[in-house]
Amino acid sequence: DIVMTQSPDSLAVSLGERATINCKSSQSVLYSSNNKNYLAWYQQKPGQPPKLLIDWASTREFGVPDRFSGSGSGTDFTLTISGLQAEDVAVYYCQQYYSTPYTFGQGTKLEIK
Amino acid sequence: EMQLLESGGDLVQPGGSLRLSCAASGFTFSSYGMSWVRQAPGKGLEWVSTISGGGGTTYYADSVKGRFTISRDNSKNTLYLQMNSLRAEDTAVYYCARQDFLYPIDHWGQGTLVTVSS
After folding, report:
1. Partner A contacted by B106 (CB < 8 A)
2. Mean pLDDT for back-to-back runs of 10 residues, chain B (118 residues)
3. Alpha-carbon distance values, B33 to A7, A26, A79, B67, B84 (Å)
């Protein structure tokens, strides 16, 4: 199984500042035949189901603000929120869909400082 | 508008059984794979199972293999999860989600709570 490890577990950032969340996979999730990373980021607000923010490591979903960006390849990935807004308080998860079981990271709780 | 509506969550004793349902609307159900993902109280997300659009291919997490069965009825636009030999550690909110094989989850239901306790 591919193990996904996020860091940090929690993060407090001031409004308007940048938040950075890391995700590391125990093996590469880059499929060489199409050069795609099978890595997604989700946002979960309290009492709500998760919401897909970014797939293929860096493709923002329709309607997701452009302050959210994803980067990385192979085994190391980053979710960056530039200019933190109050509504960004949530738990963020990465997930690999390269192979089953489609494992998630443990989550990173983002709060306002 | 696309919707996924789970039902069937309940309080059940250890060793008992339960069947969850997920009614889908707003998209061509049979054209998409579907998954179940669960979240224990205060914990993270755990992928449980995925089924292909036609229902012929399924995958399971080791933690539920042999106890849970995913299925679908494309004539009713409904996804199911039959859960047998339930354990306390199966207590969680179970989310129905649209997910094809080798694709991310692009839509989630609101979830249904399963509590396994005596």
Report:
1. yes
2. 97 98 98 98 98 97 98 98 98 97 95 98
3. 31, 26, 27, 21, 23
